[in-house]
Amino acid sequence: MTEYSIIENGFVIDPEKNGIEKKSIGIIAGRLVNVEEVLEKDGHIPRIDAEGCYVAPGFIDLHVHVFKDVTSLGIEADRVGVEQGVTTIVDAGSSGWENYSIFKETVVNCCKTEVLSFLNISRKGLAAGLNELAVPADLMTVEEAADIAAREPNIIGLKARMSGSVVKQQGIAPLKHARRIADAINVPLMIHIGNPPPYLKEIFPLLRRGDIVTHAFHGKKHGILQEDHSLIPEAEAALARGVLFDVGHGTSSFSYETISQFKEKYATPFTISTDIYLHNYQSPVGSLMFTMSKLLEIGYSLEDIVKSVTMKAAEAIGNKEIGTLKHGTRADLTIFTISGEPVDLIDSEGMVITGKSILQPRMTIKDGKVVSGK
Ligand SMILES: [Zn+2]
């Protein structure tokens, strides 16, 4: 593609507007513009025909693991990124202070997908096993965090995995440490929740506005919901002060039962992410679009699920350049179709529902250029 182009005939989903509108989108020099501005250009104007497709801002997946080779679970970034219609991915804690430079060199700088990071508060990230918060001496200091965050713009937050198997005897202490670091360098925390201890009633009070709780809708015991399907008071209070819930599907962290019960009582928006890695990309996770298809089947609207992986996800990481169709912002776009072929959709608890509308990537545009599909 040349400097400018027009994407025409698509059904455009603008997360800042209501409804879906058939219209054209203009691109000049990697930026979104009005179509009229492109039409003023001389000569041949390249056009992409999106007839029968949906066009949305590039999708953002807030929770992936793409530290290939160095961590045993890392999957190739573009395979879960632009090849699946996802223009920005956030690696959630695969790397830490000690190995981020390797991550940057071998992943961030070597793929078409934009790769951001929630840096693990443990110095080795997930490179030395999956109980990275069990030894206090392994945690990075406030000074180390401040230094690396100042040097590395792609580090946009911190990750702390707060479940029993990760923290071992440390309980809530690693989260208190994470809180101190996050406050000192002013970035959001992404907290993984799973099997206690620590319990959510200890975790939630430590979270502030803008922090993200991933695996929010898992089906394990001691989750966000009580017997009567209402939120535990600590979760309700956290949502009220602006803590964000995130899906983080993963191998064992997304339950149709939990999300359905939440949906019955609460309209609070949340973000949809995959927690995709080498061992779950075939099943049960699939891809971001596959995960979105599950939420669609549960009864969320197409506009809401697109909003959650664009505008909402961009807000969560404080990025005004992406997740939007505003004039002058970066031309990252996801073009997709919805197939009516029935497909079995499995959650992390082994429950299967039949999906009747499956999102499928058609074309991915990054900085105004086609990087996947045709
Ligand atoms: Zn994860």
Automatic annotation (TrEMBL):
Pfam families hit by this protein: Amidohydro_1 (PF01979)
GO MF term set: deacetylase activity; hydrolase activity, acting on carbon-nitrogen (but not peptide) bonds; metal ion binding
Keyword Repeat: no
Residues annotated with N6-carboxylysine modification: 159
Amidohydrolase-related domain mapped to chain residues: 54-371
Binding site for Zn(2+) 2: 159, 192, 215
Keyword Acyltransferase included in the entry's annotation: no
Keywords associated with the record: Metal-binding, Zinc
Gene3D superfamilies in alphabetical order: Metal-dependent hydrolases, Urease, subunit C, domain 1
Residues noted as binding Zn(2+) 1 in the record, renumbered to the chain: 63, 65, 159, 275
Site note Transition state stabilizer, residues: 161
Name of the protein in question: Dihydroorotase
Organism expressing this protein natively: Evansella caseinilytica
